[in-house]
Amino acid sequence: MSTILEVAGMSASIGSQQVVESVSFSVPDTGITAVLGRNGVGKTSTLRGILGLIKRKGEVTLAGERIDGLPTHRIVQRGVGYVPEDREVFASLTVAENLALAERQANPRRDFVAHLFPDLVERRAQMAGTLSGGQQQMVSVARALLNDNRLLLVDEPTKGLAPRIVNEVAGALEEASRTVPILLVEQNLEVVKRLAKDAIVIDGGRVVHRGDAREILGDEELTRRLLGVHGDAPADGHGTEERA
Amino acid sequence: MSTLVLVLVTGVGLGALYFLVASGLSLIYGLMHVLNFAHGVFLTLGAFLGWEVASRIGATGWPAFLLSILVGGLVGTAFATVTELALIRPLYERHIEQVLVTVGLAFAAVALFEGIWGSDPIFITGPAWLDETTTLLGARIPNVYFVLMIAATALLASLVVFLRYTRYGMIIRAGVENRAMVTALGIDVKKSFTLVFAIGGSAAGVGGVLAAHYTGYVSAHLGQTLLIFAFIVTVIGGLGSLSGAAIASVLVAVLQQLANYYLGGTGDLIVVVALAVVLLVRPRGLLGRRPA
Known about the structure:
heterodimer, A: 4-stranded antiparallel sheet, B: two-stranded antiparallel ribbon
């Protein structure tokens, strides 16, 4: 199996605070790779560092090409889709405008997105700020799926969503992962078990473990030590102990 | 009654002039978070060069007036574009330095204009109709106010159409909300920075020519004087809100004119008091976004 993304010795900072400390890992060019870790260990910052949304050092290579010297929009144009934590839809733009802004190619995959999220088609004229949290998440995921990307960076897509919507979003990511590799930050361990093949565990801004996602989550001691939760934690993935 | 109508209509006309300046300021701050103290320079340069062209062709009629407006707009656009590319862009995300460079440019430009055109006001003449009046509900309204209102309405309508129906307009609206996310969709938001500077410069340049006809003269300080009120309008309307700037322009100018006439020339004081009240009661302005 070849890799689509190589991160080597990447550190990242927000202002004067270092939030990622020399992480190194690779992402295979198929399937979903989960990034796991307690709250505040630098998972989101790792994704944002890859995209150049925060200041970072180190090497980031996409499909053999160094991208760490490029501005964010050029990295995205090279085929990296991004679903941010907290959705970040443009509230004063309609659903259609949010999606239109994300279209980068001549033939965007509108039919695919409409198939995954038919609700958005009905609500295309609605202001995104008036959508429910779940619908906003669909807009956010749809924006990343409109283009033929080489990699998706997806940050906590099920955070704060009702179980039915969690299932819908997870289903959409599962379907998308058949055509594009995904690097997924996710706290909901049930979703991770369902979607991810590999997992990277980050702690203290560093990669501390890497392996098969189900094996990691199946090892209760390892899960408790690395994630601060039980592997069979409830569906919201938020364990009751040691949660940072 | 006719006096009140006169005060109100001239207030709306003055508000139109404020909006020509404030619209650009508001868009620039909304997208780029740059407080552009050099915005008055675009206005003054537009006024001077518009007057230069009109006077050199030796005409005071409508063709010369329209040509001077065109020149003012083009000059404002060009100078604003150069300012963004040469001075603002290298200081991207360094807001204090950006403010300092625009303040420096404003001072330097005024000195340069005084060097070229002198420090005394240059009195100008335009089409005779502008100096005449039209009677409205018994009030004799100077025609130049109607021109200001038409120009500001046309600008507002054009901006609304541009922002709502074009891709760049969509990018600017999205960028005002969340610039980082726009770049994360693969869009080079810096092109939009140049564009909003160009649009703001164009409006200010046109505003400069009209301001010269409104005051009857061009001077090196024309832009800076108007800029103070444009900033007040922008803050009261809500930084980054075009609609807020439009509403606040009219409110502030009408209030100013009413106070000038009925409260013994206290218009400027009342405007500053209004600014203080808005900052204390509603710091984000009339239609400004709530801080995230």
